[in-house]
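Cross-check.
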Amino acid sequence: MNWRRMAVLGTAGLLLLAGCGKKTDQPVIALLTDDESGQASAQIQGAIYGADAQARVTHLLRLPTGDMKQAAYLLDQAVTRFPAGTIFVVATGDLAKHPLLLVRTAAKKYYLAPDDGVLSFVTAREGLGKAWQLDRGLSGKAGLDYLGAMAGLLAESGKPENLNGAEVRTLETLPVNLAHLSGRTIAGEIAHIDEEGTLLTNIPEKLASWMKEGNLLRFTVGRENFSAPLVANAAEVGPGRFVALFTQEGRLKIVRNKGSAAKQLGAAVGDAVLIRP
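Predicted model, tokenized:
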């Protein structure tokens, strides 16, 4: 089963699939890699099962290659609904170039990842609890094996201290711009554009009391101005019209029904998004 099918099943389905035949007290280990071939995921899984034969493992998502900010954003969106105690193994870029970390966020989720900024959005949203540096100077192949083995050991023991990492106070971070309300204007930005041209913003729900379903909102995206209703389903408007919706993770997205919002607006990741009632 590929990751697109898993994404359709949703988090609950992933947890059920991962748990079949495994001990129910084991945390789920979710893999996120930027390897198109799937070899990295297979190698990590082999190392996990070598350390803990009863591990519950699922490949959650393939992250984009060569765009760390996009990878960091998609990682953050993918993990929001997983419970405390979940272990995420994140393999991005060249693992030989960065220290490998174990991070426990304030939400009590665990992340095994290179210190390359990929955890920037996660730690901004969940808060940084504690972090340990696990190793340095590993080759890419050894790095995958190492991340997998550490995930298996952590799942089996439940004690991050057993991994013998040196505690670190700061992590490599990317610029993370947070949406904010100024007077009657919400200021945010385009955080991601999907394959259908949908604009996913960094604007959260409940940032302003007037961001309610049924209200007509005025948008400025880049140099383009337009109005769009905030709805529950894009099909509520006719083809070619813009609508605004909230994602399951609670972020505002701009959709053009039966078309590409990005193409119509000439929009790009990082463009400013202003919203007024």
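The radius of gyration is 20 Å. Residues 1-22 have pLDDT under 50 and may be disordered. Passed to J.P. for a second look.
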